[in-house]
Every structure is written in C-alpha cells, then in structure tokens.
C-alpha cells in the first residue's frame, strides 16, 4: 500500500449562519500519521467528513494526489473511513465483514479470500475468520473495522475517534498498535480525536483546532513544548497558566522580566518581546518544590492545597502567594514526600521552562472553560509516566 497526498486549501464549511470550518489550509504528506485535535464543536469531524465526501465544502479545495475532489461522491475517492461505532454486520462472520466492500469493487472471489487473510493478519486476527461480531471483544471488533477499511487498499485512511468507545487500558494498548500498523502499511492516516494522549502518542504531526480554525500545527513535541498561545498550552496536556504583566523595559536578550503579584520572574521562552498583560505557562513536570526557607532565583512562596496519588507520580496542587493556582508532579520513588496539605513551600519556576504567551483577552478560568470535559489527571499521568 502507498500513502496518498492530502492538501486542504482555504477549506470552509458553513451551516446556515454557523461557520464550522473557517478557511483552513494544511498539507498532509504521503504516509504521514496526521491528527486533528480539539474539543467538541471545533470543526475537526466536519473537516474529516469533507475529505471523505460526506459533506461538500462551502468553499475551498480538498485535493487528493493533486486532484480537487471536493465535489466528488465518496465512492469515487480512494479513501476509507473508520468510525467510533464500528458498524459491523452482526449476521456476517469476521471474514464476510472484511470482504463486504470488495463485492462492490468487482474484486474476484479468489483474490478476495487472499486479501481478507492478509488484512486479518495485519490486525492480528488470523484464525478469527468464522467468528461473529458478538463473539469478539471491543478491541477485536475495532481491529475488524480496521481490516475492513484496509482491505480496500485506500491511499488515505480516515479515522473518526475509533478508540473512543474502549476502556482506558485497552485504548492505550491499541494506540501503540495502531501507530505500528500505520508504519507497516505506509498509507496516510488522518485521525480525528479530542484525546490529547492519543494525538501525542501516535501522530507524526498534529493540528490543534479552535472554533473552526487551526490554532497551531506541528509535531507533538513542538506543540507540547512550544505552544503558540494560552489555548493550545491549556488544551494539549496540562499547563499551569498564570496572569502576569511584563515589566517596563523588561525585555532583554533572550529573556523577559514579568511581574507575578509582588514577585519579579525571568522567563526565557515564548514571546519575549511581549508587553503589557501576558500569560505565563509552565508544565507541571517542570515545577520544583523546596522547603519554605530555601532561597534562590525565580522562586515564589506557596502552600500545598491537595495531594493526589496517581501511581507512578503524585500530583500536588499549590496556591502561590499572589493567589495563582499551580500544580506539579513528583515521581514516586519509594520515599515519603516531605509535603502534606497545608505545608508552606518555596516554588521554583525555572526561567528556561517559563513561557510568555500572548494574553487572549480572557482570564485563565475562561480559557479552561473552553476545554472543560477532559480528564486532566489521566492525561497528566500518561504524559509524565
């Protein structure tokens, strides 16, 4: 199998007065695992449906291998889709489910049997040919749906939250398997998810979407470590966001001095030429705790509000002297933590990890309302384990 080249140019979709997708442009290289990530209502699934042919674009282009297919029906496009609901036929066997689409592609019966065997071997279901869907686990049903899509040998495979119905442990296992499968077959994957863990684990590149637009595009490492704004920082993983203000004349070579309450901190990442109100961002794993009496640069006094045991790490919620809420992660190495609820601490915010982001004009609490509904503890423990 070979991967297809996908190019979206100023792609827009409007439903009456609502703009679901707002002039997005992105190029997905052949054989790339590309994810669209964002909360419900951000436009990611509508984008996928336009690539699949289930929704016509209002304007713009959907190019597959250099051809604008925006007005082509789904069956004329060399793409296939795997949905969250696997839609397997309960009265057909596994082999019959996988072979179903080939009957309408005029594939000879002898070739169908060979291709079904190859597809089931790819998804590690050889020997399950005669079982019916109700005799399979959720993970096995998901693999059958994948095999049914792959057997048609599409140049692009579209996946709309295919792991969303599975339990957390199985979902993590299949994330690794799905990434390995994509590398093996070499076709282009366009994956839609609201789960940051999935996007970080599997993608070669990802696009974070917000209100129908692409907020940031890059590799998982780039987007996680170098978020473009407060929305991306807070949505992708867990980020400590604090309201601050740049000190007059506080922009120097490779650094920026900001005021957090009564404290002046140095930041060495982000928009170091910013002025006025900004957001300060730092990932929990970069925050360091010391005894209250400890001295040093870029430290703010605080107090422990709550500890949450996550297994490999303990999540510690803090309240800084200026009122900002913060959290950090401490790896569990078998030694009892010297902190408990109410313990005063000195909180170190390393300058190289402290990122200056543009102020979107809303409070930190309002930004977090945008991404409500995500399991932050689960994401944090996965990223840092």
How are the strands of the biggest sheet laid out side by side?
Answer: 6-7-8-3-9-10
Distance between the termini: 35 Å
What structural class results from the helix and strand content? alpha+beta
Morphology: globular
Rg calculated over all Cα atoms: 24 Å
What is the number of E strands?
A: 21
Helix content range: 10-25%
Mean pLDDT: 87
SS strand fraction: 25-35%
| Count of runs of 4 or more consecutive helical residues | 10
pLDDT < 50 stretches: 362-385
Major sheet summary line: 6 strands, mixed
Walk me through this protein's architecture.
By secondary structure, this protein is an alpha+beta fold. The chain contains 10 helices and 21 strands. The chain has helices at residues 44-52, 94-99, 109-122, 138-150, 168-185, 196-202, 220-225, 230-235, 364-370, 376-384, and strands at 6-15, 18-28, 33-37, 59-64, 67-68, 79-82, 156-160, 188-193, 205-210, 213-218, 240-252, 255-260, 263-267, 269-270, 277-282, 288-291, 299-309, 313-320, 325-331, 344-348, 355-358. A 6-stranded mixed beta sheet has the order 6-7-8-3-9-10, with helices on both faces. The protein has a 6-stranded mixed beta sheet with strand order 13-12-11-15-21-14. Strands 16-20-17-18-19 form a 5-stranded antiparallel beta sheet. The longest helix is centred in the middle third of the chain and has 18 residues, at 168-185. The chain is globular. The model is unreliable at 362-385 (pLDDT under 50).
């Amino acid at each position: 199998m070979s991967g297809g080249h996908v190019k979206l140019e100023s792609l827009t979709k409007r439903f009456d007065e609502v703009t679901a997708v707002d002039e997005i442009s992105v190029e997905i290289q052949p054989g790339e695992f590309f994810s669209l990530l964002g909360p419900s209502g951000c436009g990611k699934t509508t984008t996928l449906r336009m690539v699949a042919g289930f929704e016509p674009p209002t304007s713009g282009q959907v190019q597959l291998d250099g051809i604008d297919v925006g007005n082509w029906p789904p069956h004329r496009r060399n793409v296939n889709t795997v949905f969250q609901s696997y839609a397997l036929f309960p009265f057909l066997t596994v082999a019959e489910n996988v072979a179903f689409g080939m009957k309408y592609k005029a594939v000879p019966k002898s070739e169908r049997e060979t291709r079904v065997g190859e597809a089931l071997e790819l998804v590690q279901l050889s020997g399950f040919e005669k079982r019916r869907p109700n005799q399979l686990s959720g993970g096995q049903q998901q693999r059958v749906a994948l095999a049914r899509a792959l057997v048609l040998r599409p140049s692009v495979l579209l996946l709309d939250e295919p792991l969303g119905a599975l339990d957390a442990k199985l979902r993590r296992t299949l994330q690794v398997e799905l990434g390995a499968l994509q590398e093996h077959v070499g076709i282009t994957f366009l994956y839609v998810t609201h789960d940051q863990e999935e996007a970080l684990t599997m993608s070669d590149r990802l696009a974070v979407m917000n209100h129908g637009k692409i907020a940031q595009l890059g590799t998982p490492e780039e987007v996680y470590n170098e978020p473009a704004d407060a929305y991306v920082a807070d949505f992708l993983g867990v980020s400590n966001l604090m309201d601050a203000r740049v000190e007059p004349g506080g922009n120097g070579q490779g650094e920026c001095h900001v005021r957090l309450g009564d404290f002046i901190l140095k930041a060495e990442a982000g928009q170091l030429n910013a002025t006025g109100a900004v957001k300060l961002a730092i990932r929990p794993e970069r925050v360091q705790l010391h005894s209250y009496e400890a001295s040093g640069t870029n430290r703010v006094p605080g107090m422990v509000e709550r500890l949450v045991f996550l297994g490999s790490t303990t999540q510690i919620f803090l309240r800084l002297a200026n009122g900002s809420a913060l959290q950090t992660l401490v790896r569990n190495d078998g030694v009892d933590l010297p902190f408990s609820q109410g313990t005063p601490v000195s909180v170190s915010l390393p300058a190289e990890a402290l990122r200056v982001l543009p102020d979107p004009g809303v409070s930190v609490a309002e930004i977090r309302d945008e991404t409500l509904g995500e399991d932050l503890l689960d994401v944090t423990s996965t990223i840092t384990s």
